[in-house]
Write a structure and sequence with these properties.
This protein has 9 helices and 10 strands. By secondary structure, the chain is α/β, with parallel strands linked by helices. The protein starts with 41 loop residues before the first strand and ends in a 7-residue tail after the last helix. It comes from Novosphingobium beihaiensis.
């Protein structure tokens, strides 16, 4: 389960993290040139992604490959028995996707446990739900997670078959938010929207052709923001499961926004709306 972890800067321990680590230097085994993890494992890279995963008690970690500089950049000290293999930057590059900015840190760990939608819907009007309909680019999903963490979203919901898997690319784009924001993967997105409505959420689909703006459509209570893939937008069946369709009031000089930018703006609009009158 995605547990919350503190990924804020500052407050670094006086002891350097590298002093508590054991490992061996030299060339590394596993994943030569593939960027793939061992069977059933996920490989994460980059300081924010790795640091947040290390702090997440829900993660089961297998191994950390690292440079001395990478370990020194971590906020906090690892246990003395944590499995670390010291390496050079060129060696780490062979463990990750091509040209991926690993920042001297590559972590292999178990994927996060599956979540049930009912377990993450809290009905708090200050915490929107983000629903993504066939948004498949891991960079976009990761960026949306980062915005969702910044604006304290309740959860991100995607369809299991039409969303990227948990990966190093997604985690790097999320900059630690993969460990913070609950990510619910469902078999049937329309059915999930029904469950979200039953939990008291007003479902707003974003579409550039809508008559109403998002500000006009936003309710005072709990809201679920539904975004479709770039170009194709939301599928017809998903639109039918929304309570309202709204657009972002962008200039006519620009046809559309990247889906991650649209999600960030929609989350900001939800966070700054007028509170419900008592």
């Amino acid at each position: 389960m995605n547990k919350r972890s503190d990924d804020r800067e500052g407050g670094r321990d006086s002891k350097r993290p590298g002093r508590a680590l054991r490992g061996r230097a030299g060339r590394m085994k596993n994943g030569r040139g593939s960027g793939r993890a061992s069977s059933g494992m996920v490989r994460l890279w980059g300081r924010h992604a790795v640091e947040s995963a290390l702090k997440n008690p829900a993660r089961s970690h297998r191994k950390l490959w690292a440079t001395r500089e990478g370990v020194d950049s971590l906020d906090g000290e690892l246990p003395s028995d944590f499995p670390v293999e010291w390496a050079q930057g060129a060696d780490l590059a062979r463990l990750v996707a091509r040209d991926a900015p690993h920042q001297g840190l590559v972590l292999e760990c178990a994927p996060l446990d599956d979540l049930f939608l009912a377990d993450v819907l809290d009905g708090n009007p200050d915490r929107p739900v983000i629903v993504l309909d066939q948004v498949t680019d891991p960079h976009n999903v990761g960026a949306i997670m980062r915005s969702a963490a910044a604006f304290d979203a309740c959860a991100i919901v995607t369809q299991d078959r039409h969303a990227p898997p948990e990966s190093g690319t997604l985690a790097k784009s999320a900059s630690g938010a993969l460990e913070i924001v609950p990510w619910v993967r469902v078999v049937n997105l329309a059915r999930a929207l029904e469950e979200i409505a039953e939990a008291g959420y007003w479902r707003i689909g974003l579409d550039g052709e809508a008559d109403a703006t998002l500000a006009q459509a936003l309710p005072a209570g709990p809201v679920a923001l539904v975004l479709g893939a770039e170009g194709e937008g939301m599928r017809h069946n998903i639109i039918q499961h929304c309570d309202a369709i709204a657009r972002l009031p962008i200039s006519a000089a620009m046809e559309s926004l990247n889906v991650s930018n649209a999600a960030a703006i929609a989350l900001y609009a939800a966070a700054t709306r007028e509170p419900a009158a008592e």
